[in-house]
Amino acid sequence: MHSSMRFALLFSLTLLVPLWANADTTIATEDFASANNPLSNSADWTQAGAGIAGAGLAAGGVFEAGTTAGSGGGSYWATDSFNADQYGVSVINGSPDGGTNWGIILRAADSDPDELLLALFLGGSDEVECYYINASGTPIQVGSTTAMTDTPALTDSLRAEIVGVNLKILFDFGAGMVEQLSCDMTASGITAGAVGLMIQDPTGTGNFDDWEGGNMDAAASGTAVQRRRHIQ
Fold first, then answer.
1. Could you tell me which residues come within 8 angstroms of residue 105 by beta carbon, excluding any fewer than 6 positions away?
2. What is the tens place of the pLDDT at every residue in 41-95?
3. Whose CB among 30, 72, 105, 117 lies 3.0–4.6 Å from 200's, allowing a Cys bridge?
4. pLDDT tens digits for range 131-149
5. CA angle at 176 for the pair 171 and 142, rounded to the nearest 5°
6. Distance of CA 65 to the CA centre of its chain
7. For 199-213, what is the mean pLDDT?
8. Peptide bond into 38 cis (omega under 30)
9. CA distance 101 to 75
10. Domain segments of the chain: what residues?
């Protein structure tokens, strides 16, 4: 092979290697097909701490708050361990503008069972917020309530990720993940834990589908939800 051709090939391969290396590592997936009511009845899930009432329901392939107005809950994946830099993503299944509050839980129950980080999407107003819940079960907002860059629709995806102290909330409106809000979570003091999700529904109409949680590659951001399934 001509030396210039060999150089061009090697150069091309060098460029490709980082692209392969910068993929997030999926730890767990769930399709909520089993009728675990609450979700924490499943051996894989544990109910979130005192700051989030209830564990949420899993039935018919979705994760829901329940049919009672104001009901809700959250759970985190307890079977496997996650790195400190982690992500969670899930598909919106139900009217995004119906008043449901949808959340991705990060770094849950590390040093205290009630502690966690929460990336929140407010379906009634199309806004996002960052929270942490402390050891007393008190939700504390970090940063401002921020309007989303587009109007969410059915089957769009909510993603949250944290690298170091930087928590990002992203949304896929159908053309790839778009960052909506970035928050410095230094004040939380929460440095590790598990990934999960929560939902609070004043109207009883919204739910999540196809959840995934895993470890972040610090150089990659915004990976779309994968359609693999967890089998109970």
1. 48, 52, 74, 76, 88, 116, 117, 118, 194, 195, 196, 197, 198
2. 888 999 888 777 677 777 677 787 655 555 678 899 999 999 999 999 999 887 6
3. 72
4. 999 999 899 999 999 999 9
5. 25
6. 16
7. 80
8. yes
9. 15
10. 23-215
Q: What percent of the chain has pLDDT over 70?
A: 75
Distance between alpha carbon 144 and the CA centroid of its chain, in Å? 19
Separation of first and last alpha carbons in the chain: 53
- Of 38, 63, 45, nearest to 195 by C-alpha is 45
Compute the Cα dihedral for 185, 101, 96, 74 and give only its sign: positive
218: left (phi over 0), alpha (psi -120 to 50) or beta: alpha
Q: Which residue has the higher pLDDT, 89 or 230?
A: 89
Residues in the chain: 232
In CATH, what class is 23-215?
mainly beta
Residue 65 in contact with residue 207, Cβ under 8 Å?
yes
pLDDT (mean) for 181-199: 96
**What would the 3-class secondary structure string for 14-55 be?**
HHHHHHHHCCCEEEEEECCCCCECCHHHCCCEEECCCCCCCC
